[in-house]
Recover the amino acids of this structure.
């Protein structure tokens, strides 16, 4: 928000968040205060924060360091024998040392002590029940009014958001496997959502942003399909999809398996990457702000998805990119497409647990340490790892694939593990065996990579591969080719191959005729052991491929090597065209956040949302500082969301918050007498224990996530 880098900027952003949160609490308590004054209830204190008073003000006494309560009580005792109005107000305005929260203390009303009643004519108990309902609900109403006002202001100024456009689709995800519901367009449209699709409706409601789309999916019921209307180039009418989301990602939220759209402008992430990586993807010499303006002769590129489509049609030929730097200079780069592998999943020991697995008919590259500088952390160096190491053994797994290697390491979290690596020395591979310590987070301290471009090392094929999570497993074709771990492919049909990528292309050439006729094929493959000192002869095998294997092999294409994370996200300005539209949009957004907050509690009970996904004061402050860094408008938007959430939480039917107090007054209005004090004490204590437990849990998770534990 202040544009100041480093800790000072973070501290300033945090101060803004604290002040903003204090403003929200002030508005909430002001609602109670004004309503109490209207109802004729004596207000003893209007406080922001908890704990002892840091500063106070009382009419007739002025400002005081600390509380003026003692001085007021002494004066009151001295004036008991006098008649006439007291020039000193009974209301103290306090700023307490702990800045989170606040309260209004009324005569005869104490949330933590229901027995603290008063029979004074201006006490809480002597006020009519319907007026007390107004007093109790006034804070929530004020929060909703504040949120609506902030949303109106936000949409009058304009908020930059990521549009509800699909940038990429993860393989084998619900979004990738779904078909349009209209059979007349299914064949033409093909399976799944596609990059560039614009989602115009989610369950009958238009999403305002990509984040809105993600939230709607995450808040859906378990096993219930999400209805999408999608606009796609080449189709006059929107396509309708009905997709059942699945839990995905570290947060375990329901997801369709899509990512937001990226622009063609490089972000500041590229300035943090090593020169070797940038050279590898063809972006050497470029920095943040450089934009791709053309690919070959095509100049109408709008998003990275458009560029991805060109790489998919490249048939493996380099794509010539025209790039404009921030200073206006133009450069050209020839970028080699990425060779696609099959994406499957390895079933785990736990039901429903799978790991992504890239392979070619079961041939998978071996996991290795990335060769770029900085790929080994201090932890990895202490463990004896070096850049470029190929894992020959991890615990009992010989020559593991990337999926198997990561899974094995994580399974040994907090323990010592046996490692064997292949390391090049003077052009020869040598093996080094040692022990290493796996961290409690399940890491060894390195950036993982694989050997798809290195010496055609192949992992031992798994017995079973799933085409999609929870799908029926199948035996991959490579399980009949490799009989022992530690082999590598050196030739296909007698022609040498230097990598698994070369092997894919050689296998496609060798089965070209079979692919045209729809038949199976037999291919000669030469294997050898990686270490020369093993003195083992080369192995010649005839690999029998079915017609399905050949069709799958030739269905593998090419994709862009450019990671979407290197580019700025596509953003649009969400701005109302008039004050009336801003008001309408603000009220609609208030309602959306309100409903989403209530739905969150329902999803917690359905267990489609975990308690770890909730944020407490620490998590809210952390998110707030991140959004404050994006600008003042985002800060206003965040405060509006928090104001709605505070309204919802305060009106839950729990005795210690406004919602529980409201229900007790309703009981009193109906029965003509208040809830018995013993019952009030019991439910108040239960509510306090529940909220305190929830506070401790979410704070623990917030701190753990903040520290990366």
């Amino acid at each position: 928000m202040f544009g100041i880098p480093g800790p000072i900027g973070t501290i300033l952003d945090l101060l803004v968040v604290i002040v903003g949160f204090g403003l929200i609490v002030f508005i909430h308590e002001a609602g109670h205060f004004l309503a109490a004054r209207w109802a004729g209830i004596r207000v003893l204190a209007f406080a922001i924060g908890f704990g002892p008073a840091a500063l106070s003000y009382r009419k007739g006494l002025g400002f005081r360091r600390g509380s003026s309560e003692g001085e007021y009580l002494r004066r009151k005792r001295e004036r008991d024998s006098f008649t006439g109005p007291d020039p000193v107000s009974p209301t103290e305005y306090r700023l307490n040392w702990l800045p989170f929260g606040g309260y209004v203390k009324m005569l005869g009303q104490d949330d933590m002590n229901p027995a603290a009643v008063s029979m004074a004519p201006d006490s809480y108990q002597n006020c009519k029940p319907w007026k007390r309902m107004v007093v109790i609900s006034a804070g929530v109403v004020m929060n909703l009014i504040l949120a609506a006002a902030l949303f109106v202001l936000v949409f009058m100024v304009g908020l930059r958001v990521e549009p509800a456009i699909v940038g990429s689709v993860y393989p084998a995800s619900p979004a990738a496997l779904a078909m349009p519901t209209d059979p007349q367009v299914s064949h033409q449209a093909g399976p799944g959502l596609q990059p560039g699709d614009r989602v115009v409706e989610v369950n009958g409601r238009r999403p305002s942003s990509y984040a809105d789309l993600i939230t709607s999916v995450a808040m859906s019921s378990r096993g219930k399909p999400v209805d999408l209307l999608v606009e796609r180039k080449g189709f006059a009418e929107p396509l309708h999809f009905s997709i059942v989301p699945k839990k995905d990602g570290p947060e375990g939220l329901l997801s369709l398996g899509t990512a937001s759209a990226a622009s063609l402008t490089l972000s500041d992430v590229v300035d943090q990457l090593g020169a070797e990586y940038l050279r590898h993807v063809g972006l050497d010499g470029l920095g943040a702000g450089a934009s791709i303006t053309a690919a070959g002769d095509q100049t109408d590129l709008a998003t990275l998805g458009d560029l991805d489509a060109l790489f998919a049609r490249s048939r493996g030929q380099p794509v010539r990119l025209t790039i404009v730097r921030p200073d206006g200079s133009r450069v050209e780069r020839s970028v080699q497409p990425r060779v696609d592998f099959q994406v499957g999943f390895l079933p785990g020991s736990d039901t429903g647990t799978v790991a992504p697995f890239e392979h070619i008919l079961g041939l998978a590259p071996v996991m290795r340490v990335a060769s770029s500088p900085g790929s080994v952390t201090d932890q990895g160096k202490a463990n004896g790892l070096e850049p470029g190491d190929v894992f020959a053994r991890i615990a009992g797994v010989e020559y593991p694939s990337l999926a198997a290697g990561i899974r094995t390491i994580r399974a040994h979290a907090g323990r010592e593990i046996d490692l064997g690596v292949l390391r090049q020395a003077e052009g020869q591979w040598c093996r080094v065996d040692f022990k290493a310590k796996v961290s409690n987070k399940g890491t060894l301290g390195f950036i993982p990579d694989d050997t798809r471009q290195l010496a055609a090392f192949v992992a031992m094929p798994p017995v079973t591969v799933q085409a999609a999570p929870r799908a029926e497993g199948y035996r991959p074709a490579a399980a009949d080719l490799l009989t022992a771990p530690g082999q590598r492919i050196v030739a296909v049909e007698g022609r040498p191959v230097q990598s698994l990528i070369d092997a894919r292309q050689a296998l496609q050439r060798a089965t070209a005729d079979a692919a045209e006729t729809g038949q199976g094929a037999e291919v000669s493959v030469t294997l050898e052991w990686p270490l020369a000192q093993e003195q083992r002869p080369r192995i010649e095998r005839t690999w029998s491929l079915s017609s399905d294997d050949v069709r799958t092999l030739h269905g593998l294409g090419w994709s862009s090597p450019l990671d979407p994370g290197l580019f700025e996200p596509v953003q649009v300005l969400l701005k109302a065209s008039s004050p009336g539209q801003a008001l309408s949009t603000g009220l609609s957004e208030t309602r959306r956040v309100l409903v989403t907050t209530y739905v969150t509690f329902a999803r917690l009970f359905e267990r489609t949302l975990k308690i770890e996904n909730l944020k407490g004061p620490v998590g809210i402050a952390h998110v707030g500082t991140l959004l404050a860094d994006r600008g003042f408008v985002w800060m206003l938007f965040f405060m509006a969301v928090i104001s709605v959430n505070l309204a919802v939480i305060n009106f839950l039917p729990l005795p210690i918050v406004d919602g529980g107090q409201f229900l007790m007054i309703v009981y009193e209005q109906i029965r003509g007498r208040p809830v018995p004090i013993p019952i009030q004490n019991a439910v108040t204590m239960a509510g306090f224990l529940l909220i305190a437990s929830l506070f401790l849990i979410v704070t623990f998770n917030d701190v753990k996530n903040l520290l990366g534990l």
In short: The radius of gyration is 32 Å. The chain has a mean pLDDT of 84.
